[in-house]
Amino acid sequence: MSYQEAALYGDLVLFLRDRAAELLARDGDIEAQRAKLDILIRDWFFTPQAALHGCAPRDLIWAEQKGEPNPIPTERLDEFFFDDCPLCQDMREELEADLATGADPGFHWYYDDGGYPLIAQYDPEGWEALCAAEEATWEAASATHAQQDALIEQVNQRLDEDDWQAASEVAYEALWLAPHNFRAANALLRCYLHRDALREMERVQFRMFHPEDPDYDTPHQRRRRLTYTYRALRQAAVWDTWLEDERWGSPALNEVAETLHAGFSALNASYCVGEDGAYERARDLFAAAEKHCAERAALYWYLARLYADYGFFAESLEALAQLNAIEDQAMRPEVQQLWAEVTWWHDYGERLPWIH
């Protein structure tokens, strides 16, 4: 039951009390009848009920408010352990021992509506629509998982053939379906941990970043190695059109083009040479552009790609979250692809051995 539903049921009780008081009064003292009904309601709160294992409704309500488990009366344990199986009886003995010493037995119970709340009785059409929507969501998720499983099997086959590049392409396809699927994320990581991938990437990285460089282990250089790796390995189709000219945005951003250009220059200085204050300056300039930009979707899409291109993955995800909050933007395939790709590199990129 949702919080709003619980609050509305409270309003319903008071509404019914007032209507009942009017009917019982029959042109008499409504306040007196309301007081009698209030006594009935209070008695209901304070009276132990068999359905609650001897607890009163108030006991459960205050326990939940305080974040405590529902009390377990020792004398009513038969209601919990009615099976004669040895395992159940062993659990009961352990529970009794803990209750006797005042320790938390770790056995808690919970009261609910049985999955069929009051609203379902009075609005069966709405209940059926909700159930149908949940079933459709479950079926869609199941279909997605089945697709991912099939793609991951292809990844495994290509890795068995020592073709880590082809395997990674398929792994990205699995990620694009659902970026937080652990098996899909792990499949891509296994591609990059393949012995041939390790040799190739370490050879390429050695030409760009020499371990004897005094700045090799600085956070700035690690970011550059990670970004260079990402640029070499990324697969999202959006990068096919990320040309030099497009870095300045689209015509929709002309009104803030000068500010974005200055922000790009600051971000570039932060990435290339680790200039002090450059990152903060870029963030301030992009925030200023946001205040004066009418085309927010175009701006967030531009920033998401720009940040990702320079290895600022957390900032890219922030821009994508703002983009997804705009109607009709979240389901765009290119947005979903970039979201999945950046999510993986944000969560797993630092695990690549040649970054360290």
Which terms summarize this structure?
356 residues; mainly alpha; 15 helices; 66% helix; elongated
The whole-number mean of residue pLDDT values reads: 85
As a whole number of angstroms, the C-alpha radius of gyration is 31 Å
How much helix is in the residues?
A: 55-70%
Described by strand count, sense and barrel closure, the largest sheet is: none
For the record, give the distance between the C-alpha atoms at the N and C termini, rounded to a whole number. Answer: 49 Å
Extract low-pLDDT stretches. none
Q: Look at the helices and sheets and give the structural class.
A: mainly alpha
Would you count the extended β strands for me?
0
Order of helices and strands: HHHHHHHHHHHHHHH
Tally of separate helices? 15
Strand coverage percent: under 5%
Describe the protein in words.
- By secondary structure, the chain is mainly α.
- Among the domains are: 123-192, no CATH class; 210-355, no CATH class.
- 66% of the residues lie in helices and 0% in strands.
- It has 15 helices and no strands.
- The chain has helices at residues 3-25, 30-46, 57-65, 86-101, 118-122, 124-160, 164-177, 182-192, 195-208, 219-233, 257-273, 278-292, 296-309, 313-324, 333-348.
- Helix 6 runs antiparallel to helix 7 (164-177), helix 13 (296-309) runs antiparallel to helix 14 and helix 14 packs antiparallel against helix 15 (333-348).
- The chain starts with a helix and ends in an 8-residue tail after the last helix.
- The mean pLDDT is 85.
